[in-house]
Amino acid sequence: MTQRADAGKKKKSSKQNPNNLNVNILQTDPPTSNLKRKRQKVKHDERKKEAELPARRKLKDDHDDEEDFNDDSPRNSDAERMLQDSDDNDSQSTGSETEYDAEFSQSDEEDVGIDGQPNYEDSVHLSSFNLHLEHNLTKEEIDNQNGSKFKWEVPAIGMSSCKWIGTGENILEDLNSNSFDGLKARLYEHWMDVYKTSGGKDLNSSMQKIFFSLCSRYRDILHCNKKPFYVKGLEDTSIMDAYIMHSLNHVFKTRDCVKKNDAKLSRAGESAGSDKFRDQGFTRPKVLILLPMASIVYRVVKRLIQLTPSAHKVNVEHMDRFLTKFGSEEGNEENDHDSENKKPQKASKPSDYEVLFGGNNEDDFMIGIKFTRKTIKLFSDFHTSDIIVASALSLVNKIEEAGSNKEKDVDFLSSIEVLIVDHADVIAMQNWYHVHTVIDHLNRLPSKQPGTDVMRIRPWYLDDNARFYRQTIVLGFYSNPDINASFNHQCCNYEGKVKLVCDYKGVLHKVLPEIRQIYERFHVDSIVDADDARFDYFVKKVFPRIKDSDQGGIMIFISSYFEFIRIRNFLKSQNASFCLLGEYTTQSDISRARNWFNEAKRKIMLYTERSHFYHRYKIRGVQNLIMYSLPERKEFFPEILNMLDGSANMACTLMFSSLDKFRLDRIVGTNKAKRMVTAEKSVFFFCH
């Protein structure tokens, strides 16, 4: 292992082409898809191996009736720890198929195909799961990662004004919308039962099937038009269910193939010297789910338990501890899917704020989930878990601890094969750089000797190429440049990328006061100069208008904390009369600043977007609004402008550049935004 690992360290990560969104519809129509070609190659290799290895064929023939399993297809995961589970005593059997193996190798081994019907023939070794993990990545393919471009587009079913764009082969072109292809039959049947019991009608929706199919094809996915549960209670639960089922499917298939390879090795009395038995990573955890708040963990984990087939959750360990740590004080353990319907006690805050922050707002958490034969173990050791659900902040703390203490490590991140980032827009309000740090530390070579048999570890783990096999799924209400940068640069799955792109109608119609909105565009040469260009425009063009004015009630809205500090320092240098309301301002200083501003004891107030996100204050006394930078969250725009309602001399000035296209899209609408960033004139007026 040491020689291969050392060799792997010399290989450097290939980065994706940054922000290349020039979408060209694919003109060629390949006669055979990559998936079909992979399956044909697997079949050819199997026939060749069977001809060369008659002993292997005999072993296979002896057990085909029991297992429907191809022993020439390596599988993925870490079984050595699994075999030590206290309730997996049957794993020590060497003579005949154990009860556990029988459960997983018969009815549950088939994959679901068209219209929910099982695919019995070649269902295991020809699944997307195996084809993805068994692929031998070439140096040429790694080098070509830099040249990947979005070159095809397909309208998104069920989402008006949206389209999927992707790199590589157009996998949506021939996608069967009536299929849950690759899903284990037992998972599918239980999923159906759960929906029937709860009265759900969306299980077989084309939108859900397409998203699950995207997941099962192991492409990197950026879906930033996911309706969140806190906005009018219209969470797109079909998307959450799809990624949970994909995670369970990946974990169970990983578990199945390791168990079966163990049984084959035991019966044959052989050692794991053949590449066909390389089915594991360095450590056991295979799925990592990043979430922003403990209350959202509560929703996701409860749903994950619901969607786990009954045979695998006869016992759920530490459920009381889970309810105590992640549940809210309002008893939502009984109504976790109906929490959006509960009425807020007061209307002082917007309804979405009441729902999002109405539960446990802890943002430093981490929980391991382990599946044994009949038990779901919550709070399992991270190194022996199957799924880890965590906040980016908690993982960053773990990474820093490992960096300063040699006895600690984050090797449980070394073999993550599916990364899911849900509610990415909320995480962006917290600190997206934490996500960047976490992704950067995924799939690194472990710092300590792994407990896994080195002869069972897949070659691409040893070659330090695991990041090219990791699937990353990013979900949110909207995207921003930071999220896009991580998706473009840090996600380098050899299968390619799929991304949802949408046109927006804007939120100008939600502005209540009839006020003249003045949008002023400033010139930017490059993204490196953007902050300085914005600041120079404010200092030279905007501030002189208010410096000598006697009018008070001037609110300067700022999106970035670093911009907030810069403007604060500038106002200090100008001896301006101002007060602060930022995300780190103490509660006593906030109350004092609001009173000063309302009573005109301070002329200017600096107000940050993150402060509004966490508190949703309604500031009184605003007469002149200056948006130094547009808000990331579109719902904040009308909320801030509506603070002018009732003022005698209302004024509103908004600064933007061509680099603010994403934010401008969501505020004024996609069509208007295109004209505003490309037109020769630089000043635009709106009045609603």
UniProtKB/TrEMBL annotation:
Family, as annotated: Belongs to the UTP25 family.
Ranges where the UTP25 NTP hydrolase-like domain occurs: 218-498
GO-annotated biological processes: maturation of SSU-rRNA from tricistronic rRNA transcript (SSU-rRNA, 5.8S rRNA, LSU-rRNA)
Taxonomic source organism: Arachis hypogaea (Peanut)
Compositionally biased region (Basic and acidic residues): 43-62, 72-84
Lineage of origin: Eukaryota, Viridiplantae, Streptophyta, Embryophyta, Tracheophyta
Localization terms from the record: Nucleus, Nucleolus
GO molecular function ontology, one term from the record: U3 snoRNA binding
Keyword Ribosomal protein in record: no
Record protein name field: U3 small nucleolar RNA-associated protein 25
Annotated Acidic residues bias: 98-113
Cited Gene3D superfamilies: P-loop containing nucleotide triphosphate hydrolases
InterPro entries in the cross-refs: P-loop_NTPase, UTP25, UTP25_C, UTP25_NTPase-like
Keyword NADP: no
Region (Disordered): 1-121, 328-353
Domain (UTP25 C-terminal) ranges: 508-686
Primary localization: nucleus
Keywords, in A-Z order: Nucleus
GO CC terms: small-subunit processome
Any one Pfam family match given in the protein's UniProt record, by short name: UTP25_NTPase-like
Composition-biased stretches (Polar residues): 16-34
